[in-house]
Write a structure and sequence with these properties.
Blueprint (H helix, E strand, L loop, with lengths): L10 H11 L2 H7 L7 H11 L18 E3 L2 E3 L3 E3 L12 H12 L4 E2 L7 H7 L5 E4 L5 H13 L4 E5 L9 H6 L9 H8 L2 H8 L19 H11 L6 H11 L3 E6 L2 H9 L4 E4 L13 H12 L4 E5 L5 H9 L4 E4 L1 H10 L1 H21 L21
Parallel strand pairs: 3-10, 4-5, 5-6, 6-7, 7-8, 8-9, 9-10
Antiparallel strand pairs: 1-2
Length: about 375
């Protein structure tokens, strides 16, 4: 390990190491947005505009960030977001991230487009995790995915609503993204400089989409997988499908991808347990508003009816606290933990969570608050935050 983890003090430190250690196509997959990447950048930069009120000579003793998300106890209001190809950031990445999250006391969400399968993660973990569902044209496959998540003991289903069609991600196109990477000269040259990653991949059998290969009709090899995925995201997805999925699942349901107050009303009316204000990390509609900009309007619209969480743009514990101050009941982080995973494996995910916790705890203290129930817009400087 080139750097003692105790000297890794922020998420940016993890990003720098991950960029050095992860093959370019997979690093770029995690750390990029659609088209001009304007929304991807805004997700992060809009947080920086929000300023905090420092308070002094108040009792800061006995602080706690503990709360619940959809009725599930969490050490802090953070869950690991579903991220595709996590097992390509580091060998067996989904398993390692799930183990780190469980040990720390926050939820892990497994993506439909994971490398390690639902069953792989369930076998390697002791605590329930969440499963994220994309709706495909093959509804029999989707029904079976839901049943597999039930059988694995998943404690919540996260239904993503904002990927009926794929946003254009220029870096992925230029890099020829695939899992595993195709043996082109360009890829081979890049992999030659990633020996740690290559050794890890040689030590695992999990190198493609574990939830799909061998489960979807006719998908038995990489050639079949490529054509299947190109056709399967369903542009016909509707609120009627949400009702069907809710009934088929029968457990806690979380709706991800809400950016508009009208959609938030529809989401709340489904009876779901939570909705996630998310623009897919800026990877779908470039030019959309950042999530922190739209959060207050959605909280105002439906916050009394359904838990509102925020995803996209969080790079620090301060960002977490700012989202809570603006009415979010929880947050999800994707890139922050992926940087840790790509840099140092399971220990890097743990370090990312430690960093977020420490930053949120210290910030809450210096704002004169001891628990999340006391955190609201009074910790923010008027005129610096969206309303």
């Amino acid at each position: 390990m080139s750097q003692n983890l105790s000297t890794v003090t922020c998420i940016e430190d993890l990003r720098v190491v991950a960029k050095r250690r992860v093959p370019r196509m997979f690093y770029d997959y995690a750390d990029s947005g659609a088209w001009t990447e304007g929304t991807y950048r805004a997700n992060e930069s809009e947080f920086h505009k929000i300023k905090l009120r420092q308070r002094v000579a108040v009792n800061m003793d006995g602080r706690s960030l503990a709360t619940t998300m959809a009725g599930i106890d969490v050490k802090m209001p953070v869950a690991l977001a579903p991220t595709g190809l996590t097992g390509m950031q580091h060998a067996d990445g989904e398993i390692l991230a799930a183990q780190a999250a469980a040990d720390f006391g926050v939820p892990f969400t497994l993506s439909t487009m994971s490398i390690c399968s639902i069953e792989d993660v369930a076998q390697a973990t002791q605590k329930p995790f969440w499963f994220q569902l994309y709706v495909m044209r093959d509804r029999e496959f989707i029904g079976n995915l839901i049943d597999r998540a039930k059988a694995a003991g998943c404690s919540a289903l996260v239904l993503t609503l904002d990927l009926q069609i794929m946003g254009q991600r220029h870096k992925d196109i230029k890099n020829g993204l695939s899992a595993p990477p195709k043996p082109t000269l360009r890829n081979m040259l890049n992999l030659a400089f990633k020996p740690r990653w290559c050794l890890g991949m040689l030590g695992t059998k999990r190198r493609t989409f574990g939830n799909i290969v061998g489960h979807a009709k006719g998908v038995t090899d990489l050639a079949a997988l490529s054509s299947w995925t190109a056709e399967q995201f369903d542009p016909r997805l509707s609120w009627d499908d949400v009702a069907w999925i809710k009934e088929r699942w029968g457990g806690k349901l979380i709706l991800k991808g809400i950016l508009d107050a009208e959609d938030a009303r529809r989401a709340a009316a489904t009876g779901a347990d939570a909705l996630i204000v998310s623009n897919h990390g800026g990877r779908q509609l470039d030019g959309a508003l950042s999530t922190i900009e739209v959060l207050p309007s959605i909280v105002s619209e439906v916050g009394s009816q359904i838990e509102v969480w925020l995803d996209s743009g969080i790079r620090s514990g301060q960002d977490v606290l700012k989202a809570i101050a603006l009415g979010a009941r929880g947050t999800m982080v994707g890139r922050a933990f992926l940087y840790g995973l790509g840099a140092y494996g399971k220990a890097g995910v743990t370090r990312a969570l430690e960093i977020l916790y420490k930053e949120a705890d210290v910030t809450m203290a210096l704002c004169g608050r001891r628990n999340l129930a006391e955190v609201d817009t009074s910790i923010l400087v008027p005129g610096t935050y969206p309303r």
